[in-house]
Write a structure and sequence with these properties.
By secondary structure, the protein is of the alpha/beta class. The protein is built from 25 helices and 23 strands. Helix 7 packs across helix 14, helix 7 (about 235-260) packs across helix 23 (about 670-685) and helix 7 crosses helix 24. It binds adenosine-5'-diphosphate and magnesium ion. The site of magnesium ion has 4 residues, from helix 10.
Amino acid sequence: MPAMSRPISPGPASARAPLRFLRGVGPQRAGALARLGLATVEDLLYVLPFRYEDRRRFRRVCELVPGAGESALEVEVLRARTVPTRRRGLDVFEAIVADATGRLRVRWFNQAYLARVFLPGRRVVLFGRPVEDRYRGDLVLEHPDYEFLDEPDAEGIHTGRIVPVYRKLGELTSRRVRTLMYQALRLAEAEGLASYVPTATLQRQGLLDRLAALRELHFPGEGADLEALAAGTTPAHRTLAFEEAFLLQLAFIAYRRGLEARGRGTAYEVTDALRTKLARLLPFKLTEAQKRVLREIGADLRAPRPMTRLLQGDVGSGKTIVALLTLLVAVENGYQGALMAPTEILAEQHYRNIARLFEDKGADYRVALLTGGVRGAARERILRELARGQIQLLIGTHALFERGVEFRRLGLVVVDEQHRFGVLQREALVRKGAHPDLLVMTATPIPRSLALTLYGDLDVSVIDALPPGRQPVETRVYSEPERGLVYARVREALAAGRQAYVVVPLVEETEKSDLRAATTLARELQREVFPDVPVGLLHGRMPGEAKERVMRGFVQGRIPILVSTTVVEVGVDVPNATVMVVEHADRFGLSQLHQLRGRVGRGAARSFCALVMSEEASPQARERLELLARTHDGFEIAEKDLEVRGPGMIFGTQQHGLSDLRFLRELIRDPQLIEAARQEARALVAPPQGLERARAILQGLRPAWRRRLGLGRIG
Ligand code: ADP
Ligand code: MG
């Protein structure tokens, strides 16, 4: 019979080698890791420890006392056995170990396999916390980490040093990950792991090379600064953060150069006649802030280079009308415009409002709605008319940049609530036009450093005032037992002819249990609390038609109470709704709550927002929520979020490209680092061969990185 052997893998065992190259990783485990996005040794190296343990200091057995804390010991195994217990499903493996100063009992539960390795006479390093055995009155070490010193490749990686602790990777415990990581590093050291960032740049910025940084983060040297490691502020952290920022900036620059090479931007004409025509469309007087922002955009539109502008404006500040006027400039110049919204509900709302406005004012622009819900003949027709240039303004979701959607002459793209989209998605839409102008809008105040990280080079306009007559939304935090008070406020509003939202968190659109929570709550409210009025239910998984039906019912006031998941979070505009109840408010980020609160207070009537905490919420959670009761300043709120939970919380969901940037925290904390990365990236691209060099670097990135940077299609 032929000997069983592993298949011979092609290629050298480089850092690009598949993880199967590591001892202990067979096809099955490799498959499981691949599902976690880890295909190669290099991928694995970027899985960083989430904390470190100081296991440097060895103690002697005689020094152990209860409460001594975690200690490392170098001992010899005297004897070991599996102790029977009376409880079924529980066995105890116990070893007696000793050094020159004394003996110690060590035990593990349900780890009978240890009997094969804890053999008398073997020398082992243990790391754990001694506890007192209440029955026997002696000390015992429970479940210590261990490492045998007589193994041929005893590496000293689990004990006797600063030890990295990893989150579980699928089935793999931190200890197993550590062992794999050590192998991965050794392999990378043997084969070399070139830096993505040019050496000259690293030197100028006083950074380490990539391999050195990874080594220091996984297996810090003897003299490492434990505090800096824990805080993520070591030179190694800085190095990887810089790497990320540099590559991102390089990608942006290369992308933009590519666009510019493909054709000049469009210089639109903005004549007085056009101004007058557009002014007639306005349903209200623009605020000064809106006017100023329109002037800034107007200057971009008239210039021949493509516009790339970020429009920030707090919830309800009136970004939509600015977007519409901008789009119409392109349309009036003979181009098509596209408005992309993050959810179907929002796209439909934009479409409804814009179509109604055109109708009211007798404007005969051709506008169409394209979402995932538009199918069959209706979709065919839209695509046909779009390709012929008959549709002037297309509104929709990400369905706008699917295959098969061809514009005749796309001139301008507006992306609403930008933070919901990944970099890649935005670019895919831009690619539909040869050199379209781009306006991205967000209600989430983004610090400039983050904006640079996300969008590269762009200009920023801010609408810094709300339309007149708005009153701040009265905001209160409630605990579960106070729920009755909340319903009383809802009832009060209903009696005055107003409407209410009740929002239930949905962390992931796919989480069934959350969905059930929304469904159950809607049913309960209907049956037990508000039997006399219709209670509607809205969530992202409902078919488009049903969603629209419910939303329409709410918009028209037939449904006074709308129970919803966070699909209403962004942009939904129903001025008659004056109460917002948020369930499990402690599970939301503050900025997200601010967005939710922004759904009310849109008309002249006084509005109210109730933040109902989960039963298990901590006192700190209450304190955090109280900030919303005190302030309506989106910037202040976002900053608090950043401080408390990091950038992920600002954006609320994991669906955008953001969550993939691992060093984002670091990047935001250190705007100078981003600025340095930007300048270095620019300097690299500047010389005649610079762009080719940049592209070569980007092409050479590992696939996971390319995906992360949205580089799929950057040529
Ligand atoms: P957001 O910036 O959150 O997208 P919207 O564009 O939805 O805000 O505007 C919020 C509400 O304010 C809408 O009902 C809109 O019609 C109204 N609005 C916008 N600008 C003005 C203005 N200048 N005067 C009065 N109402 C306005
Ligand atoms: Mg909006």
